[in-house]
Amino acid sequence: MKRFKHPLEGLIVLLRKDKNFLLHLIAALFVIIISVLFNITRTEWLFIIIAISAVLFMEVINTSVEYVVDLVTDEYHLLAKYAKDTASFAVLIASMMSLLIGMIIFIPYILKLLF
User: Fold this and answer.
1) DSSP for 28-61, written as a single string
2) Running DSSP on this structure, what letter comes out for residue 99?
3) Cα atoms in the 13 Å half-sphere on the side-chain side of 108
4) Neighbour tally for 31: CB within 10 Å
5) Alpha-carbon gap, residue 81 to 66, rounded angstroms
6) What is the C-alpha separation between 46 and 86, in angstroms, rounded?
7) How far is CA 76 from its chain centroid?
8) Is the C-alpha dihedral spanning 42, 44, 48, 49 positive or negative?
9) pTM (2 decimals)?
10) Tens digit of each residue's pLDDT, the chain (115 residues)
């Protein structure tokens, strides 16, 4: 159980500092529910799991970069801005990838439901 102490503390820190992480968790839960309702295939589940994990992973890394930058300097520095901006961009890339995966998987199910 000791192995889970620090990761759980990390989760609590994330939920307190980064409201986007909580929003991503809520979105992930919504996607999981929709996936169950549409009874998606095993292969589709793999892509959904990868997409959700990628966004959450990048959000964790982004928050970690923000903490490290804030530790190094509390003054404005252009390189600190670049570090935070590029880490944030990584979250955007993962989010866009996940959106595309979701569209590829769910649009056919939605169209079948409508027509």
Assistant:
1) HHHHHHHHHHHT--HHHHHHHHHHHHHHHHHHHH
2) H
3) 7
4) 19
5) 9
6) 27
7) 27
8) positive
9) 0.90
10) 778 999 999 999 999 888 889 999 999 999 999 999 999 999 999 999 999 999 999 999 999 999 999 999 889 999 999 999 999 999 999 999 999 999 999 999 999 999 9
